[in-house]
């Protein structure tokens, strides 16, 4: 059975999915084929290359490099949580390890060829347990507990619904981290974002429109949900005017989906705007490049994706009405900034 590996990258700008590879760092160590499948030799080279590295991090880094070069096999599944839009990419390893000298040591020259065949899968597609496992925050890690869930999804089998958890699991800690406090805070943040999106996906569409209106009111707007039908594609009307009469009137389109919104939907909202009216499109998922380009050329419309909406929830949560707090039971968590010396 093919192995299942998770990969995290702090360099999404490398566009590995476009280049047909998966890439990791520590390029200064050099071509691992010249060292060979010898953990002790890899440790020695890391210690020599990075003399200021903490002693405990050396065997962990060596383990990552060893597994990447000598344990990952052709045919293995790669799961890549893509941070810029909080989606997940899937690919299959198609070639042996190689060291790409042409990209420079700073651009993750340790590489494997990968066929990326499923991109930008919404995170809410998977159970919270599966999402927690691939949030391990180690550069390379074996996915074990929920490997079958990911493989089943890729084989077209329906997912098994999972109750929405309200407690944060913090059992997976990045073994390479020098700052465990900051890491746990990051895990809590990501888990909570998943919880917010999953919860809002599970309420009704009209209730979601009410939630968006409630969030706008918490931000200082007067907001009203339109009639459930015959609204012309506009779900909420908002204004800074307490009576809702003064300009600019903001027309809001709400899409309770984790999928990708295309340009036609954005154009439909634009078509409802008259005079000084402005448009706001809110979704729990994301937008296609064409939709984002459409919005960039139109100063009277703004697109809010799932991550943006979650940021707004965090910022204005205390001002939300109690009924929406019951839908999203959250509380503030304080963490040490910058770690403990």
- The parts where pLDDT drops under 50 for at least 5 residues are 166-179
What is the name of the CATH class of the largest domain? Alpha Beta
Rg over CA atoms: 23 Å
* CATH architecture call of the largest domain: Roll
Mean pLDDT: 87
Q: How many structural domains does the protein architecture include?
A: 2
* Separation of the first and last Cα atoms: 44 Å
- Binned, the helix content reads 25-40%
Q: How would a crystallographer describe the biggest sheet?
A: 7 strands, mixed
How large is the share of residues in beta strands?
Answer: 15-25%
What general outline do the C-alpha atoms trace? elongated
Quaternary structure classification = single chain
CATH topology of the largest domain: ph1033 like fold
Number of helices: 11
Compute the number of strand runs: 14
Structural class: alpha/beta
* SSE string, helices as H and strands as E: EHEHHEEEEHEHHHEEEEHEEHEHH
């Amino acid at each position: 059975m093919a192995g299942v590996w998770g990969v995290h990258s702090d360099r999404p700008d490398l566009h590995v999915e476009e280049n047909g590879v998966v890439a990791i760092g520590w390029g200064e160590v050099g071509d691992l084929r010249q060292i060979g499948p010898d953990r002790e030799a890899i440790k020695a080279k890391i210690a020599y290359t990075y003399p200021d590295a903490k002693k405990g991090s050396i065997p962990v880094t060596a383990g990552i490099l060893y597994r990447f070069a000598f344990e990952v096999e052709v045919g293995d599944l790669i799961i890549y949580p893509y941070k810029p839009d909080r989606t997940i990419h899937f690919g299959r390893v198609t070639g042996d390890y190689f060291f790409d000298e042409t990209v420079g040591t700073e651009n993750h020259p340790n590489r494997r060829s990968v066929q990326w065949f499923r991109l930008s899968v919404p995170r809410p597609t998977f159970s919270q347990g599966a999402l927690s496992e691939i949030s391990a925050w180690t550069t390379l890690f074996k996915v074990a507990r929920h490997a079958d869930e990911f493989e089943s999804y890729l084989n077209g089998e329906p997912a098994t619904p999972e109750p929405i958890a309200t407690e944060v699991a913090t059992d997976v800690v990045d073994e390479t981290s020098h700052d465990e406090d900051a890491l746990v805070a990051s895990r809590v943040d990501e888990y909570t974002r998943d919880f917010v999106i999953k919860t809002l996906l599970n309420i009704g569409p009209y209730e979601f429109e009410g939630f968006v209106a409630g969030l706008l009111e918490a931000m200082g707007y007067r907001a009203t949900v339109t009639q459930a039908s015959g609204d012309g594609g506009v779900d909420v009307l908002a204004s800074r005017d307490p009576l809702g009469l003064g300009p600019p009137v903001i027309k809001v389109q709400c899409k309770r989906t984790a999928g990708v919104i295309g340009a036609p939907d954005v154009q439909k909202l634009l078509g409802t705007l008259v005079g000084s009216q402005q448009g706001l499109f809110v979704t729990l998922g994301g937008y296609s490049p064409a939709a984002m380009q459409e919005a960039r050329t139109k100063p009277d419309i703004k697109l809010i994706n799932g991550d943006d909406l979650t940021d707004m929830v965090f910022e204005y949560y205390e001002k939300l009405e109690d009924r929406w707090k019951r839908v999203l039971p959250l509380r503030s968590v304080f963490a040490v900034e910058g770690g403990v010396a």
